[in-house]
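Researcher: Next entry in the queue.
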Amino acid sequence: MTYTLATGTRACSKTTLLSLLHRLFHNGAVIMADTSDIINLHIKRKTPIGVQLEEFNEQKKSGKILPCDELVFEAIKQWVHAKSELQNVLHVLLAGSPRSPKQCKLWKEHTPNLRVINIHAEPHEIEASVIHRQKITQAIRPDESPESLRNAWQDYKNLVVPGLKVFNGQAKTILRSQPMRVRLKETIDHIDVPENVRYRLHQRLDTPNHPVSMDVDKLDGVTV
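Model: Structure for this entry, 224 residues:
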């Protein structure tokens, strides 16, 4: 099983990036999730891991990185295992991981077929992105207050980025300031897939009337 992880500070577009990539694959053997959604699912279902993770929920909302690396890692593994029992899973796209030096080491030690996308974003880019989304959705999430965003960015800078060194060539940094099309192309070039699959992903993205290509144009502000 192959994994593609996307990490970065809160609201840096990592989930959006992998969602677009997932749609480009258009393959039932490729699954995608956000780490926060997996954690929330465990909490909602009151699994043994969820009960333990729930006590950290308020800390998570504040933007701080959870000090429970093994629990988060095990929650993800259990989610993947459950999916694998229902369908043939060959590739997992996971947003929001790794989130600490310890998680980086866990992924490195236990997952040989792995690529990491690190989305670098400056605080003003995150703030502008959140304000834009709030205007569109007319909704303000409790975990995206200015204080929470600052905490998340600081922890990402101080904890996540140094931890990524263990991945060596398996990790690639892309800039949030680049157009989404560029970010998506760089991601496709980095992930661990056969060359014929890589070619098809690029081909679909470069097809003007492909739904993903059209959505990328909208995100990049291109009038079609």
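Model: Residues 179 and 221 are 9 Å apart (CA to CA).
Researcher: Noted, moving on.
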